[in-house]
Amino acid sequence: MPTINRDLVRVPADVPAEFRDTYINNYLAATQNTGRLMLFACDQKIEHMNDDFFGEGISADDAEPEHLFKIGSQGVIGILAGQRGLVAQFAPDYPDINYLVKMNSKTHLVKTSQDDPYSPQLYGIETVLDLRDNGVNVVGVGYTIYLGSEHESMMMTEAGQLIADAHANGLIVVLWIYPRGEAVADEKDAHLIAGAAGTAACLGADFVKCNPPKGDDNASSAEKLVEASKASGRTGLVCAGGSTVDAATFLTQLHEQIHVGGAVGNATGRNIHQRSLDEAVRLTKAISAITLGDYEVDRALAVFNGTEDFSL
Amino acid sequence: MPTINRDLVRVPADVPAEFRDTYINNYLAATQNTGRLMLFACDQKIEHMNDDFFGEGISADDAEPEHLFKIGSQGVIGILAGQRGLVAQFAPDYPDINYLVKMNSKTHLVKTSQDDPYSPQLYGIETVLDLRDNGVNVVGVGYTIYLGSEHESMMMTEAGQLIADAHANGLIVVLWIYPRGEAVADEKDAHLIAGAAGTAACLGADFVKCNPPKGDDNASSAEKLVEASKASGRTGLVCAGGSTVDAATFLTQLHEQIHVGGAVGNATGRNIHQRSLDEAVRLTKAISAITLGDYEVDRALAVFNGTEDFSL
Amino acid sequence: MPTINRDLVRVPADVPAEFRDTYINNYLAATQNTGRLMLFACDQKIEHMNDDFFGEGISADDAEPEHLFKIGSQGVIGILAGQRGLVAQFAPDYPDINYLVKMNSKTHLVKTSQDDPYSPQLYGIETVLDLRDNGVNVVGVGYTIYLGSEHESMMMTEAGQLIADAHANGLIVVLWIYPRGEAVADEKDAHLIAGAAGTAACLGADFVKCNPPKGDDNASSAEKLVEASKASGRTGLVCAGGSTVDAATFLTQLHEQIHVGGAVGNATGRNIHQRSLDEAVRLTKAISAITLGDYEVDRALAVFNGTEDFSL
Amino acid sequence: MPTINRDLVRVPADVPAEFRDTYINNYLAATQNTGRLMLFACDQKIEHMNDDFFGEGISADDAEPEHLFKIGSQGVIGILAGQRGLVAQFAPDYPDINYLVKMNSKTHLVKTSQDDPYSPQLYGIETVLDLRDNGVNVVGVGYTIYLGSEHESMMMTEAGQLIADAHANGLIVVLWIYPRGEAVADEKDAHLIAGAAGTAACLGADFVKCNPPKGDDNASSAEKLVEASKASGRTGLVCAGGSTVDAATFLTQLHEQIHVGGAVGNATGRNIHQRSLDEAVRLTKAISAITLGDYEVDRALAVFNGTEDFSL
Amino acid sequence: MPTINRDLVRVPADVPAEFRDTYINNYLAATQNTGRLMLFACDQKIEHMNDDFFGEGISADDAEPEHLFKIGSQGVIGILAGQRGLVAQFAPDYPDINYLVKMNSKTHLVKTSQDDPYSPQLYGIETVLDLRDNGVNVVGVGYTIYLGSEHESMMMTEAGQLIADAHANGLIVVLWIYPRGEAVADEKDAHLIAGAAGTAACLGADFVKCNPPKGDDNASSAEKLVEASKASGRTGLVCAGGSTVDAATFLTQLHEQIHVGGAVGNATGRNIHQRSLDEAVRLTKAISAITLGDYEVDRALAVFNGTEDFSL
Questions:
Q1: Cα Rg for chain A, rounded, in angstroms?
Q2: How many helices (H) and strands (E) does chain A have?
Q3: Can you tell me the distance from the alpha carbon of C307 to that of D114, in angstroms, rounded to the nearest whole number?
Q4: Which member of A85, A121, A136 has the closest CB to residue B205?
């Protein structure tokens, strides 16, 4: 199991001395002292509205938002990422989870064919600091940028300032960066994704969540990911989980992203919460076994199947 | 009659310690100690201009705005929702009403076929706090979001910040969320309405006002509402009253929304104020009998017909 | 002559205790202790550029802006409404006039056929308070909203905040509300004007200036105005004077607007200032005789013709 | 030579008591104690890029921006108007010039046929006050409004607030107002220019720079200017110099603008700086001889030709 | 080797007394006490995404962003220009480099044919001051303006304010100015570039980075550059390096830009970092030999080839 200690946390220079310890604590908490990130993405109730939470193939448990917090509480995760209001409502009953407040979101109603995507920042950083002051275990903030959108500039400037403000207060930052819009021919192009990863580095994010590139006959997705994980420099790269696939496939991909592609973890949502509570909890443990525990895929599958346990 | 006490009010984590009691007081006042919400919607003078207040089938009493405050004062309601200026003019003479300041509004002159809807925030939260400081009994604020509008982002960001600011000052928040715009094919689709309800939860609203979904051969409107009332989690869902129908139909629908659909109350405007003062007062009592008093429809109709009274 | 005293002034709840006396003083000054409003509109130098001040049928006196202040000083008016800069330049020489600072204005160069109207707020409320602190007799502020314009939202939000800020500082507010834009088929429709009047009430204006509705075979303009004057509630309604007509016609219309239509005064510009100083002064007295003195039309005409005087 | 003293300076009411002396000092300095304005316009390096400074018929002296400051220092002018950065770079070496900071500018690359003009404010008023605090002899600020542009509202609101802020700090303000855009058929129409002049008065500018109107068979340009100089009221009107013409023609026009048209000075750029230093210096003296010294044209030409000198 | 001392640094008047020494220190540090600027441009990871860092003809060393800092640290440069976040992540390990924080950036995904370019400011100046307070050796800030873009106004106003704020805090400013957009027919036109240089002077930049103009049969690129270097006045002009060419060609061009064209240095990115670390380090020394050491081309080539060394 990878382990880091306080001295190994690289504190960026925009964290002031008075919040240096806070930043280190948050970084260690988010990565569970491993330097790896297991992010449980719970922001889709706006992004995909109820499509991800109700319908064929989705557990009835997922119909109510508390499901997400039960999973986060009973499973093994690094951070639970959700919008401010959702966190504010449930955190009092689930105080031990590490929360990352997702700062922007949009619905999927207006398609890219109608208008290029813009996901607005929904509240100021001070509202997040207020949550922390009120006792919520907030370790960081997240923001999505759609590069190549005609509205790219608005998201770039919101993210650019947000990262500075977050670090100035000791919070870590995860950027979701997806190339999307009329100008983007292939969102899954490895070279383009590497550009997105480099953009996150320039903005100073601690982690960047990208889509895994599309593999081809010459190189697998994980092999192609190497360009991006290098381009992101000291910004740790994690891949989005995407739509639900079977656990074996999912865990295999994750293992390759880390051990071949240079990713430092995962960011998974639907794949987890669309399952029943019990199964979802086991999947978080299996994922964490790989991300945080450096397990091989087989052993992680055993965790998922409940024949082995994984805890920190 | 459903009853809650101070300990049963779930205070979200964005309410700071110093305003915790205020929030609880406001929540109990708004719900009349029941946890259920009877919202008297009085914001249509901008939204529908004079169409809702003057014309065939509308009582002459409704021509003057003071009618709304007479109803709110003599009837039985939880909160009266109106724009800041209207409240400021009449509240000194009707000090006992619980007021919810509607923060945004637009006229209906520009139709969706000309431009997607945007309803701008009309004044800052500090103007509401000033009203409260001046002695007005303001318990919360309201805001309308048109999801799927090309201007969705502006409303999302205004609402997102508003909720944080309101809670930070102990006020409760009701969101009106309606999918509307070129991108929205069917505003009354149950799945879409559930997505709207979930959005309100993510933003941290205390209550969300949605349109009731369209029923079909397989499921009634109230049955279809269940998806939304689950998706909204700890955000209480209430349905808009819509245009005026006869009292029996209206009260039956309301009863089903609560007891079948999982709604926690009602948000009713035209159905009430387009009647004469006396009739309108009796209708508020009938509605409250169902929402706050858990009456059956027949008994609520007796209240409406004046053969029985309802008070808190 | 209608008379009110301090106790009869309805102070809205957004006026704080410390500015309650100021508000009452301003209200009484603006209405000359009558509760009625005689507004001398002097904002057309931007709105209509020099069209209203130079050309055939316009007195040469009107070529220079000081004409407006001479009229305001020598005539009988309630308030003189003009842009901040104009007031700042002339008020030192005309200190006794009650000034209302018009906060927004636009030229008429871009026609509605090219773009829907937007009239921007030209300066912050604090610049008006500064004028007052410097000794200028400012009693209130004014703002124009074009309802139904595609830019309605910008004017609604500027006006909404302005009213709160003005009241918070004891100033009265007059809204000019005109439905206008691609979406507006008939600007003079009585029902639409009533909607505009109701909007002013919701925003909390003290007075609203509307165009008089178009009369037809069934009802005169003044009769149709009743819908609007009821819809405006406690916001006093006054009608715009429009382009210059002969004095007898003008005064007759005004009398009917008040005594049939429920208006509480007048808002007149061109009809006054396009005349020579002497004639303009006499017209202000004739108008005030009706608005503030409850004179009949004949006697007001005698004032205009100089055979009788009117003073407060 | 026209002369004014402190008591004759009309201080607008938006200048607070503490900055009254500063305003009077600035007004007297700018007008060289005459009440007339000789403005040396040096803002074209952005407005016209290098077209005004390099090419056929332009002195090689004009290739370097220091040329402007040499002229301002060795010649006789009232104020030198230039962008903040240019002033900041050269003022330390030319401390005796009266500076007017031009607050907005745009290049001429995007033509009106592509988009209506918008010239954005480039820096806040506080940056000008900082320059003054640092010892630069700043007496005022300038701003250009393109009336009739689809972006008119943005410039009106920036100018409206700027004038209030400048006066609040004792600075004088010169507005450049040019009707321009798709909606403007004839930029040189006398009636339209008068409307522009009146707009400047309503905004409260101390001086307004307009284009001279186009003369016709019935009235010369200077005769037609009278409408504008009356419309501008207490805002002094000066005419733009336009492109370079021979000195005799230029000085004759200027004399007529003042003595026939009612202008109170000149605003000249290219006509001065496109000449060699020596010639440019002599032209400033000739212009000032007319504007500030009330010379006849012949004697001013003698100053230009170096056979007579003019100093203050 | 050109040398300046503290007394020869021209401090613009917008630097207040308290930051005068800081400005001089920063100016001397950036120019290595020569008055000449060797700028190592490291902002392309956003501007060109990964195209400049990975692919045929690019050293594998360039795949990771730390490469840039290794070059900056081991080579000889004046300042390293990069986005705030990148600097924050690596500066703690490379504390001796002089950093210039690039304040705005955009990706190249949306082409000019789709929309005119706008590169938004990504963070406020206070975040740069915070970096400096945290011990990072920040000497200045940079900003790109696309003149002639339909979004020119937004960049002009951001840059205009930025320069004032930077100088107010003792930081130097480099503007990148490129004419670009539908309105720009020829980005490399010498006269247009001179206009861009003059714009930088009016905004008050310390240095301006332009593209070298296109030469023709009558005049070389360097000869044509003279117009721009004169137009920029006291704002030092440096030329962008452009895409990678062989070292001899590159160094010859640079020498001519300085000694023929009047440039005061260079701004070079891809030409340096697309090489292996060793080669890149030698190239920075060869460039600095010309820019800072006034070497002839042959001797600078010897430095590049490693047969001679260059240090400060």
A1: 18
A2: 12, 8
A3: 61
A4: A85
SS3 state of residue E167: helix
Angle, to 10 degrees, between the axis of helix B277-291 and the axis of helix B66-74?
50
Give the closest-approach CA distance of E286 to chain D in angstroms: 31
CB contact under 8 A, C50 and D194: yes
Query: What is the C-alpha to C-alpha distance for residues A76 and B127, in angstroms, rounded to an integer?
Result: 45
* Marked catalytic residue, from D45, D102, D209, D285: D209
Question: Would you state the pLDDT for residue B245?
Answer: 80
Q: What is the pLDDT of residues A249-288, one digit of tens each?
A: 999 999 999 999 999 999 999 999 999 999 999 999 999 9
CA distance B255 to chain C (A): 32
Cα angle D173, D179, D182 (rounded to 5 degrees) comes to 145
In degrees and rounded to multiples of 5, residue C99 shows phi and psi of: -100, 140
Helix (H) or strand (E) holding C162, with range, is helix C152-168
Closest to A232 (Cα-Cα) out of A217, A210, A216, A250: A210
DSSP SS3 for D101: strand
Report helix, strand or coil for B80.
strand
Burial A201-238 (b: 16+ CB within 10 A, else e): bbbbbbbbbbbbbeeeeeebbbbbbbbbbbbbbbbbbb
Told to judge if A209 belongs to the known catalytic residues of this protein, a careful annotator would answer yes
Instruction: State the nearest Cα–Cα gap between A109 and chain E, in angstroms.
Output: 23
pLDDT given at position D8:
95
Residues of B in contact with C154 (CB under 8 A): 120
Q: Tell me if D115 and E150 make a contact (CB, 8 A cut-off).
A: yes
- Tell me the per-residue pLDDT of E102-153, one tens digit each, with 9 for 90 and over: 999 999 999 999 999 999 999 999 999 999 999 999 999 999 999 999 999 9
CA dist A247 and A236 (Å) reads 24
Measured CA to CA, the distance from residue B74 to residue B66 in angstroms comes to 12
Helix (H, G, I), strand (E, B) or coil at D30: helix
Residue C1: CB atoms within 10 A of its CB come to 12
- Compare all CA atoms of chain C with the CA of B116 and give the residue at the minimum distance: C150
- Chain D residues close to C55, C-beta within 8 Å: 191
Q: Identify whether D178 is a catalytic site residue.
A: yes
Which of chain A's residues have a Cβ under 8 Å away from the Cβ of B18? Answer: none
Residue D4: strand pairing partners = none
What pTM was computed for the model? 0.97
Half-sphere exposure at residue D185, Cβ-oriented, CA atoms within 13 angstroms: 4
The residue type found at C85 is G
Return the partners of chain C (3 or more C-beta pairs < 8 Å): B, D
Q: Which residues pair with D267 in a beta bridge?
A: D39, D240
* Contacting residues of D for E156, CB less than 8 Å apart: 105-106, 120, 122
The model's pLDDT over A166-194, given as tens digits with 9 standing for 90+, comes to 999 999 999 999 999 999 999 999 999 99
User: CB atoms < 10 A from the CB of A6, how many?
Assistant: 13
CA distance D162 to chain C (A): 8
CA distances from D309 to B32, D72, D287 (A): 89, 16, 12
Q: Which two tokens stand for residue D245?
A: 């013409």
Q: Which chains touch D (3 or more CB pairs under 8 A)?
A: C, E
Residues of E whose CB is below 8 A from D45:
195, 198-199, 201-202, 231
Q: How confident is the model at residue B177 (pLDDT cuts 50, 70, 90)?
A: very high
Question: Cα(D302)–Cα(C35) distance, rounded to whole angstroms?
Answer: 67
Euclidean distance between CA atoms A43 and A80, whole angstroms = 9
CA atoms lying within 13 Å on the CB side of residue A1: 14
pLDDT digits (tens, 9 = 90+) for D196-250: 999 999 999 999 999 999 999 999 999 999 999 999 999 999 998 877 789 999 9
Q: Give the separation between CA A13 and CA E135, rounded to whole angstroms.
A: 8
Beta-bridge mates of residue B174: B142, B207
